[in-house]
Amino acid sequence: MKRTVGGAAAVGLLVVTLAAGIVTAAPVSASPSITLDGSFSIKAPRPSGVYGICPSRVADECGTVELAGLGTADWAYYFGPAFVPDGHCFDVDGIFTLTLRSDGSTISGPLTGVFCPGPSDAGDQHAHGHAFGNPYVEDDTILFADGTGQFEGLSGIASFHTSTAGARFRGTLKGTLSG
């Protein structure tokens, strides 16, 4: 009988030892990464026809984007000094900030891109969010770094595409952040 009890104790000790070995032998996990995959589409309110202009003027252009797996985020685009003609388009720059509504995590970085107005001369004004008759397309690249919360220690590149047509303002944000 003593042998059975001792055997059970030995088996229990073996299980604990194996479990500890598995925990300590597990490889260190890969650097964390977050995929940014979101979009937005809003209709400009009448009678102003203005969208994307921040009500508080905290930034030059702002809005919200639904990010897969992360939820709703607020974005802000602060126009830089560049607005350099490049054929019918313009090279642009600025700073882009993304803030998750769920926990306030933020990440930002410099933005460079190309703003291409439609055929209307009025579309050649980057700082105005009027789309009625003044369509445009803008394709930007953002170099994200220096995040907080879920974004702390992460950096990466994302593309930000916006366009207008009529009263509709659409955009996508796609990229990967990793540590």
Top keywords for this entry?
13% helix, 8-stranded antiparallel beta barrel, mainly beta, 8 strands, single chain, globular, Porin, 50% strand, 179 residues
Description:
By secondary structure, the chain is mainly beta. The chain has one domain: Porin (Beta Barrel). Helices cover 13% and strands 50% of the residues. It has 1 helix and 8 strands; from the N terminus they run αββββββββ. The protein has one helix at residues 2-25; strands spanning 33-43, 61-67, 71-86, 89-100, 106-117, 136-144, 155-165, 168-178. Strands 1-2-3-4-5-6-7-8 form an 8-stranded antiparallel beta barrel. The chain starts with a helix and ends with a strand.
